[in-house]
Structures are given as structure tokens and as C-alpha cells.
């Protein structure tokens, strides 16, 4: 098996393994939390009842958006870390993470 094929196989395995690793982001002093796996799938969203105000829905929307974006950033970093173990930190053309 060529070195490229081994690396490709390793990247496939990393992506599969990342489905089982989780990151969490918390915003608003822990009022909104988002758990996401390394495949960028949202696993859970937790919203404390104190932040739910029917007169200020936009604040809740902003908190959720911020938490999802932060969890996505953490998930992306996790992917980069895992792939760099295989690639030795070298960028792979056409493979953006």
C-alpha cells in the first residue's frame, strides 16, 4: 500500500472516530450549552429556563447562535488536531478543514 493510500485510509478512520468525540460550548454564563461531535453534528442543546423570555426572543436566538458557532469552531479544531497526527501537519491540497 502506498504512503498516500495509508494516509487516505487514516483520514477516513479519523473522520469515523470523530463521530464519537464530543466538544461543548457554553455561552451566557452557562445559560446555553451546545454539544457537538467531531463530525459537526449537534448532539444536544441545553437552555436554562431563566434565559427564556418571551419578550426578548432575539437574545435567546443570539445565545443559541453563539453557542453553535463556538461548538463548531471547537469541532473544527478537533478535526485539525486529529488529522495533523496523520499528515504530520502538512496541508493536503483540496482538503480543507
What does the model show?
- By secondary structure, this protein is an alpha+beta fold.
- The chain has one domain: Ybab, Chain: A, CATH 3.30.1310.10.
- Helices cover 48% and strands 19% of the residues.
- The chain is built from two helices and three strands, in the order αβββα.
- It has a three-stranded antiparallel β-sheet with strand order 1-2-3.
- Strand and helix order: HEEEH
What's the story with the biggest beta sheet? 3 strands, antiparallel
CATH names the topology as Ybab, Chain: A
Low-confidence stretches: none
**Distance between the amino and carboxyl termini:** 25 Å
Q: What is the CATH first-level class name?
A: Alpha Beta
Helical amount: 40-55%
Structural class: alpha+beta
What is the domain tally? 1
- Named at the architecture level, the CATH assignment is 2-Layer Sandwich
Question: How many strands appear in the DSSP assignment?
Answer: 3
Shape: elongated
CATH superfamily: Nucleoid-associated protein YbaB-like domain
Alpha-carbon Rg, integer:
17 Å
Number of helices: 2
SS strand fraction: 15-25%
- Summarize model confidence as the mean pLDDT: 88
Describe the strand arrangement of the main beta sheet, using strand numbers.
1-2-3
List the helices and strands and how they pair.
Elements: H1 3-18, E1 22-27, E2 32-37, E3 42-47, H2 57-87
Antiparallel strand pairs: 1-2, 2-3
Helix pairs in contact: 1-2
Give a short synopsis of this structure.
The chain has 97 residues and is of the alpha+beta class. The protein has one domain (3-87): Nucleoid-associated protein YbaB-like domain (Ybab, Chain: A).
